[in-house]
Amino acid sequence: MTEEIRKLVIAGSGVAGLSAAVYAARADLDPLVLEGDEPGGQLTLTTDVENYLGFPEGVGGMELILRGKEQAEQFGAEFQHGSIEAAGLNGQPLELSLSTGDTVYTWALIVATGASARWVDAENEDELMGHGLSTCATCDGAFHRGDDVLIAGGGDSAMEEAVFLAKFADNVTVVHRREELRASKITADRAREHDDTEFARNTELVTIQGSQEDGVTGATLVSHPNGYPREKYEAGGDVATEDFGVGGVFYAVGHEPNTDFLRETPVDLDKDGYVQTADTGDAWATTATATDGVFAAGDVMDREYQQAVTAAGTGSMAALDVEDWLESAAEVATDSTEPIATEADD
Hints:
Helices cover 23% and strands 25% of the residues. It has helices at 15-26, 61-74, 125-128, 137-140, 156-165, 185-192, 229-234, 308-328; strands at 2-3, 5-11, 32-34, 78-80, 84-88, 94-98, 103-111, 115-117, 133-134, 148-152, 171-175, 197-200, 203-211, 215-223, 240-244, 248-251, 255-257, 294-296, 340-341. Strands 2, 3, 4, 5, 6, 7 and 18 form a 7-stranded mixed beta sheet that branches. Strands 9-16-10-11-12 form a 5-stranded parallel beta sheet, covered by helices on one side. Helix 1 packs parallel to helix 2 (61-74) and helix 1 (15-26) runs parallel beside helix 8.
């Protein structure tokens, strides 16, 4: 038997993947978009997006994703359920083994699988995510003007979110499970400069109160002078419990890039698993990796900004980079429908 070789496969259907799909489809690259285990990515957890260009009245996160998918399909992008479980990236064509059991061959791959925010496993977080519970202060902070808000975390990202939220909230409480913050001194000092920012050390969040209709209305905290109170709380130990009235809760305990399928491949990942793009030396930026035919876009390669608009920008960049690469790579056939032999032909 023979297998079709795609010109381009895009892994991920969040903003980065959809932007890449629109650009690639308009360039007649006939992209196949693998929607992943969570189609639409992190933006589907956001009820309203107010800072995306072109929507002065705001737009729902799911609506923005669905409109992006419709736009990509309009230009000829093909969508398929499933995610990449293993990837053979040592030569052309690239071989992708999917969660559906299928194997896909392609000349080029754009990795736009995103980074998933870590949750703290508080009661009701599934119900309230996107309804007063958020993993992105710069996305949702403006919805909490005049509120008291709570941030779970103790690293640099938690301090940065505290500084940002202090612009809007009446009071910001940072909850950290240990006495010492993990944040650098300079970022912690910036957060401490705000009179309305408080720190609850040796404290953890165990329950979030509220509803999807009313949003977040409160939180239950546990504390212990020796830190890590949740472990003691769940074991029935002696901890202090406090119900805390807040109008918003923000998780700032880090992100996990969705790159497990790349760990045994030649694609370079940094110590936290984010995709490393290549150093071209003659371009201010590139989405190409050091692995031939593999490109990256969105939060999976951007640990700094992680915004919908920047993800969309890198998605378009990746599609343009792929188009240039396909035109210039001598070893890549111009006709992506050229079949290749599989083991069954032997």
